[in-house]
Amino acid sequence: MITRATTLSASLFILFLTLLTGKMNAQCDCLLNEDTESPALTGLPYPGTMGTNACMVNAETAVPFSATDAVQGYTDNCSVILTSTLTGTSVTGTDCNWTVTYTFTVFDDCLNPLPGQTYSNTGSDQTAPTLTGVPFAGTTGTNACLVDAETAAPFSSVAAITGYSDNCGATVTATLTGTSVAGTDCSWTITYTFTILDECLNSLSGQTYANTGGDLTAPTGTSTASTTGTNACMTAAAGLFAFDEVAAAGGYTDNCLGSVTAVETGTEVVSGTDCAWAVTYTFSVQDACGNILPGQTYTHTGSDQTAPTLTGVPFAGTTGTNACMADAATAAPFSGASAIIGYSDNCGATVTATLTGTAVTGTNCSWTVTYTFTILDACSNPLPGQTYANTGGDLTAPTGTSTASTTGTNACMTAAAGCLLLMQWQQQEDTLIFVAVP
After folding, report:
1. From CA 356, how far away is CA 340, in angstroms rounded?
2. Distance between alpha carbon 26 and the CA centroid of its chain, in Å?
3. Whether 71 contacts 65, CB under 8 Å
4. Does 260 have pLDDT greater than 90?
5. Which of 337, 318, 330 has the alpha carbon at shortest distance from 358?
6. What pLDDT, on a 0 to 100 scale, did the predictor assign at position 8?
């Protein structure tokens, strides 16, 4: 506020200056109230400043009002020195583009005012974000192959801005500018290069964080090494095979398409019987990164498929059986115990004989009964078409009493012998022949 005392003091000061310079004239005498004309803008006004780097909240402090600059372009009809007094300040815009407008009054020596004058300073936030905290450390332990690293552990703009701040307190963002993947399937690192931007797009470039990972997945699959149908006794089975790491690994794949290997983890196990045995191997499968699939097995199976053989003297059959031809099979029956004589099994098991056919030939006096049979081992492997024969005939004499005797013949004893028929018989193929003896 300009008071009368202020005006009087200023007028005295001006009078003093006028006396010193010898320029006092009646029209410019402030004491006599001769000068009542306000200053005027007769030249180019002060344009204000531009490009100031400051947040909007700090605009007035960064580019304060300059009373000296404010009077540029103004002149007075009497005064040589003009002054300005700030009467208002207005800040508009955003951190990215703000304007501070100063409203002021220009005074001459006699304090004649020219109010409502303005000039503006402009500026913006031109400071890039900075790392003021702990940055994001990246992720670890991602399970993925090298080729899938970027997909499995992608860039996170939210995580990337961790630890960064803007000088004006605004939110910052991260923009990916580069991706680099290094390492192997077993241990890889994906490095993301990014730029931090504030809302005014001031950039802090060349920032990085890295995610790490590797293949943590065990191989999958089923072994194709198993075999079936091997012809062998159980006692020989173990010696026929050995663990085959190449065959064992067949059928397994690695998710990263790397090689897999098989390692035997248990002892060879033989189980079963000669008729159905198994040789089992237990192993684990691992990939190039050491990921292990444990408890895998493959099995060789087989059995004794060899029929019994005649390795000794076979049973010769029986002879001399006393029987009629019709009774031959009953009198000299098939004997399974006898039939197996001379036969043996390759695995040392007991063999049995099964009758498959009976044929009787000859006559009552001399017949042969031939038995056809199959030799079986414990696994029912057959040796068919084997035979042995029993022989015999009717060795029994006829039985009975003659009915040819007569009684009561009337004759002298001396004549009796010539009168009687003496019946005599002889056996000729079971037929009785009567012969008259004189």
Report:
1. 14
2. 105
3. no
4. yes
5. 330
6. 39
Token representation of residue 20: 């010193």
Question: Residue 242 pLDDT more than 60?
Answer: yes
Three-state SS for 204? strand
Q: Residue for token digits 């500018």?
A: 177
Is 261:245 a contact under the CB 8 Å cutoff? Answer: yes
In a domain, 350, yes or no: yes
**CB neighbours (10 Å) of residue 436?**
9
What pLDDT sits at residue 7? 39
Compute the 3-state secondary structure of the chain and give helix, strand, coil in percent, each to the nearest 5. 15, 40, 45
For the residues 248-257, what does the mean pLDDT come to?
Answer: 97
* Integer angstrom CA distances of residue 121 from 52, 63, 83, 200, 286: 8, 7, 19, 18, 72
Q: How far is CA 113 from CA 64, 137, 347, in A?
A: 22, 64, 133
SS3 409: coil
Q: What is the mean pLDDT of residues 227-242?
A: 96
Q: Does residue 110 share a domain with residue 23?
A: yes
- Which of 337, 278, 349 has the alpha carbon at shortest distance from 308? 349
**Could you report the per-residue pLDDT of 390-434, keeping only the tens digit for each?**
999 999 999 999 899 889 989 999 887 664 444 343 444 444 444
Instruction: Give the pLDDT confidence score for residue 417 in this predicted structure.
Output: 65
Whether 215 and 256 have beta carbons less than 8 Å apart is answered as yes
Q: Domain check: are 100 and 19 in the same one?
A: yes
Judgement on whether residues 159 and 113 belong to the same structural domain of the protein:
no
Nearest to 367 by CA among 334, 318, 432, 426: 318
Nearest to 369 by CA among 401, 409, 324, 414: 324
Burial class (CB in 10 A: 0-12, 13-18, 19+), 392: buried
Q: Is residue 426 part of a domain?
A: no
Residue % of the chain over a pLDDT of 90: 84
Check pLDDT > 80 for residue 183: yes
Residues 294 and 331 in one domain: no
209 and 229 inside one domain: no
Give the contacts of 412 (CB within 8 A, at least 6 positions apart): none
| Residue 13, CA distances (Å) to 101, 109, 274 in order | 32, 9, 135
SS3 (DSSP) at 251: coil
What residues have CB less than 8 Å from 150, skipping those under 6 apart? Answer: 179, 181, 190
Radius of gyration of the chain (CA): 66
pTM listed for this prediction: 0.73
